Amino acid sequence: MTWLRRNLLLIASVGVLVYMLIPNLVVAVFSFNDPVGRYNYTWESFTLDAWTNPCGAQGICESLGLSLRIGLIASITATALGTMIAFALGRYRFKARSGTNLLIFMPMATPEVVMGSSLLTLFLMMGVPAGSLAITIAHIMFCISFVVVAVKARVATLDPRLEEAAADLGANPVQTFLRVTFPLAFPGILAGALLAFSLSFDDYIITNFNASPSSITFPMYVWGAAQRGAPVQVNVIGTLMFLIALGVVVVGQVLATRRERARA
Q1: 59-to-73, 222, 225 alpha-carbon distances in Å
Q2: 8 A C-beta contact, residue 66 and residue 132
Q3: E strand or H helix at 72, and its extent?
Q4: Cβ count near 26 (within 10 Å)
Q5: What is the biggest distance separating any 2 CA atoms in the chain, rounded to whole angstroms?
Q6: β-pair partners for 33
Q7: Using alpha carbons only, how large is the chain's radius of gyration in Å?
């Protein structure tokens, strides 16, 4: 009992992680399945056919490429705008600061159905046709809020005395930002960018409202394919995306650990 009480937190943490990773494990396992018929729900036999030909299903790689392009454009744009907004809110005091904070929080609190229909109405009024352009604008809009929250949390922890010390040593404002402020804020900026990309790549509801028949993203493809039997290639791409995300996190942790050891 003493050992159990001492390790209860660790056991609970491992249990939660295992519970969260079970769906990913199931997806990975069934990416090697050779189903009989259209539905990949029961295990039949092991095969590497889907892995050797991930674009074998009609339209799957086109939808994946569109999701990647929209995700990259939306995350880069939202990160640039969100970072500037976060620095403005975290460093300066102005009359509309409270109202700006409320407006930044609104997209995160608004249901996606409401946001998607509202954006569709706005685009129709402005004459913006449904398609990849409308989807990209919509993704940038809701990703900015998450970037602002991530970067603002990092900006709040920065010690302004470091920038003052850089100025005392002769650095101008641009040099201070590039050599002191930006490197310190970079972990928050990177976290915001990764979060924005994952949200954009994964979004279905807002995308569905503003998509056209020629702009089918990967989540929309998966939803449509599930109605008639999703191909095994969906599991392959899902497994690859999970492994890439896991690799990015592991590399980031390794680099952070090395930096901490170097400082020590």
Answers
A1: 21, 11, 10
A2: yes
A3: helix 60-91
A4: 11
A5: 72
A6: 46
A7: 23
Instruction: Please give the distance of CA 243 from its chain centroid, rounded to a whole number.
Output: 14
**pLDDT tens digit sequence for 139-154:** 999 999 999 999 998 8
Strand partners, 46: 33
Chain-centre distance for alpha carbon 81: 16
Asked if residue 80 has pLDDT above 70, the reply is yes
Distance in angstroms between the alpha carbons of the first and the last residue of the chain: 38
Q: How confident is the model at residue 264 (pLDDT cuts 50, 70, 90)?
A: low
> What pLDDT does 236 receive?
93
* Alpha carbons 211 and 190: distance in angstroms, whole number: 28
Question: Domains plus CATH for the chain?
Answer: 1-48+231-264 (no CATH), 58-215 (1.10.3720.10)
What is the rounded CA–CA span in Å between residue 54 and residue 222? 14
The whole-angstrom separation of Cα 100 and Cα 41 is: 48
Query: What average pLDDT does the structure give for the chain?
Result: 88
Which pTM value belongs to this model?
0.87
> What tokens does 202 get?
């994964």
